[in-house]
Amino acid sequence: SHIAITELLKGTVAVDSQVTIKGWIRTRRDSKAGISFLAVHDGSCFDPIQAVVPNSLNNYDEVTSLTAGCSVKVTGVLVQSEGTGQSYEIQANSVEVLGWVENPDTYPMSAKRHSIEYLREHAHLRPRTNVIGAVTRVRNCLSQALHRFFHEQGYMWISTPIITASDCEGAGEMFRVSTLDMNNLPRTDKGDVDYSEDFFGKEAFLTVSGQLNGETYASAMSKIYTFGPTFRAENSNTSRHLAEFWMVEPEVAFADLDDVANLAESMLKYVFNAVLTERRDDMEFFAQRIEKTAISRLEEFVEKDFAQVDYTDAITILEQCGKKFEFPVKWGVDLQSEHERYLAEEHFKSPVVIKNYPRDIKAFYMRQNEDGKTVAAMDVVAPGIGEIIGGSQREERLDVLDARLEEMGLNKEDYSWYRDLRKYGSVPHSGFGLGFERLVAYVTGMGNVRDVIAFPRTKGSATY
Ligand code: 4AD
Ligand code: MG
């Protein structure tokens, strides 16, 4: 059997012991003295390990034909490295080639760096690069830390459905799920598509959010969260939007907006701490190559309170800051990315929780405030990326909810299961959704959410 390279570089394996690794060649360098140096990586940590191969090996010729991307099994003695930069290396006494690169000229991985756009088109290559390898480990660390955080706080992980009949956000950005023959659609007398003949007997879609289902379980289990894929047929072709992205959605019974604003802050600090300690190697790479402040800003933000501001006060700040925005601000408008970023980057210089938005720009389920103009909504906005979390206290009063559904032209019947929660032991409850790719993009400093998900889906692009 073999051992992960991270275990060897951590220094937990005794020097002078015999070890076996399996991985892929990153680089090979041959010395005139008859030694070949192989840098081998296996994805378990940022650094490759160096295997020092003497020409006394009977397949030395084979070793000196290895190119980037070949897979190998190396056995040898673990020794302290004398070279700089590397703590340990392997004095190889056997190198077995597991897989050749058929034609090295067609394997476009060399010392030269590829653009991140180029990599998106080359599925086999992408995860073998330094940058995507580091993103993948940080992403994994963040998702494990999120599960750990909620588990430690007594939350139950609920798997909400991917196929749904409800449009949670009411934005009409849903992908349809159907087994109807598009070339021969059944029609009603009126000429509309007859979805009663469809698989589910009605219209069905990919979910935009697990929230409504999450509320059902929070109304029984008290503290739940979802963590799963969500889908939006949004027309926004930006560096912050995906058609398929992952969301983490805690939903908490007996909690108000302030409770979940605090939950969001402690959750983010918990996962920032996790990457700072568990993925130091990758974070150092991001700080060197992608975003200078990748480490320092996380260190700063785990130490201090996030800023909190009411929407109304945020508007005043933006009106009075003297900066020209592309979208002019006045009370009642939705905040655009440029406004959010001004608040986080220039005004507060920290993540900021913006609360109590105008009701007219928000979803039907948000709880109305006493002033009749605003709802108990919040967004968490981070420097460098903008909105990463959206949440609210939910409207738990049936009469107020019904009035709102009616006002927005939504069909009460469609929401009967959701309205039932307000009829049988209704309680104040609140929750939020964290856009997982936005979090990973923020933590790593990667400029585009497409580069922090394994297989990005965006408008006009679903390669492989
Ligand atoms: O603000 P949103 O639309 O809120 C909801 O869906 C609520 N139902 C959540 C809840 O209260 N349980 O989306 C939540 C977060 C956003 O803050 C953003 O980070 C992310 O999801 N998000 C996207 N991320 C990538 N691509 C997209 N197209 C996204 N749309 C939203
Ligand atoms: Mg939002």
Automatic annotation (TrEMBL):
The keyword Oxidoreductase does not apply. Pfam families: tRNA-synt_2, tRNA_anti-codon. PROSITE patterns: AA_TRNA_LIGASE_II (PS50862). It comes from the Bacteria. InterPro entries: Aa-tRNA-synt_II (IPR004364), aa-tRNA-synth_II (IPR006195), aa-tRNA-synth_II/BPL/LPL (IPR045864), Asn-tRNA-ligase (IPR004522), Asp/Asn-tRNA-synth_IIb (IPR002312), NA-bd_OB-fold (IPR012340), NA-bd_OB_tRNA (IPR004365). It catalyses: tRNA(Asn) + L-asparagine + ATP = L-asparaginyl-tRNA(Asn) + AMP + diphosphate + H(+). Its EC number is 6.1.1.22. Homodimer. This is Asparagine--tRNA ligase. It comes from Pseudoalteromonas aurantia 208.
